[in-house]
Amino acid sequence: xxxxxxxxxxxxxxxxxxxxxxxxxxxxxxxxxxxxxxxxxxxxxxxxxxxxxxxxxxxxxxxxxxxxxxxxxxxxxxxxxxxxxxxxxxxxxxxxxxxxxxxxxxxxxxxxxxxxxxxxxxxxxxxxxxxxxxxxxxxxxxxxxxxxxxxxxxxxxxxxxxxxxxxxxxxxxxxxxxxxxxxxxxxxxxxxxxxxxxxxxxxxxxxxxxxxxxxxxxxxxxxxxxxxxxxxxxxxxxxxxxxxxxxxxxxxxxxxxxxxxxxxxxxxxxxxxxxxxxxxxxxxxxxxxxxxxxxxxxxxxxxxxxxxxxxxxxxxxxxxxxxxxxxxxxxxxxxxxxxxxxxxxxxxxxxxxxxxxxxxxxxxxxxxxxxxxxxxxxxxxxxxxxxxxxxxxxxxxxxxxxxxxxxxxxxxxxxxxxxxxxxxxxxxxxxxxxxxxxxxxxxxxxxxxxxxxxxxxxxxxxxxxxxxxxxxxxxxxxxxxxxxxxxxxxxxxxxx
Length: 496
Fold this sequence. Notes:
- The protein is an alpha+beta fold.
- The chain folds into three domains: 132 residues, YVTN repeat-like/Quinoprotein amine dehydrogenase (Methylamine Dehydrogenase, Chain H); 176 residues, no CATH class; 136 residues, no CATH class.
- It is built from twelve helices and 20 strands.
- Strands 12-13-14-15-16 form a five-stranded antiparallel beta sheet.
- It starts with 24 loop residues before the first strand and ends with a helix.
């Protein structure tokens, strides 16, 4: 059985024909349809099944005249009339920040509706500008050039560099899942004391994770701990993991900081995390095996890593290992779209450690591990609860639901699908019906050039961190899930 969605436009021929300023506008990408009736509201739909993903209202616009997907379908370019009557151009960053910003294009003198109709024409996947001399120019090329210029200005302008200051004391055991003793680097990003209240931000770089912890405490015995965030205890603000294969994780392959390309500046403000970190840039690197052979010689790999670090050997000439890098910037921490993606991937990585028995079998360490997992889940839950529309967009672009399935986040998935039970019961009693705000829209089609299954996604059983023949479910060895529903069934079979 195949579901086919057909769009049909109906007109009432009895109505007198008149010029409609609020006419339908739409743009089609490889996966989605963006539609507006000409007013300041845009609807985004799946082409696959016709389900509506989200609705966005642009309060700064009176009408929308043109719209088109740009930047590999990740952004939407909009031309419309602002409240003052002028023509403006807006970029809606759909999947990275969900923010929109107004841009000014060079040699684009169109500022009224009459000139818009006379000098602009829309073709499939492009908007053309016709100049007075008859020459035709692609508008979207101007837009993409403008975006590149702004990106270069933002990323390459000279910054005042200030290296992190080392802390004397680490806030918390950040990687309790690690076996044995290993070095951690921890730095103070922000510290402020007002009266009896002390606020601190601490950066901790472990063997496979980068974490930022936040603590607001008081030395006044008259202040109740329950009135302080997390009762005065440190709480997790941000986590990123390099997701190195578990059987390759050891001291030599741990995270290393690139000092010449890492800095932070703070302005002493006390309102939000964005205000506290004026600028932030941390570059870390690590080494992984070039091939995935299980019988690799670890001693030879470690020797090659030492030779590269001591400048005895160039990384380009390496045979057994490769160097991988990650630059963590301020936007990764303060922009929820980035922070939530990193938190979800950290959950998946840590859960794979748990199911592969690569976790210290010590009650205290396991308790600390579960506590950190709880902090990560709370970060994701808070975003899904308070920004459901943005969470849906994040799921559309990065398939967050698949990551949560592989992370065994059953309660979190239940909340995303069915909402808050207590709140729903309240609404049912006082309004006569349940109100569930959708946070996930199902789809079978993936983002272009993305694979649904990668590496060890189907290895669910406990073992030593290496794939085995008996790791997969025997009756499903030749069946690979194609969507999240099939993956969830596959993942949960055999569990009590």
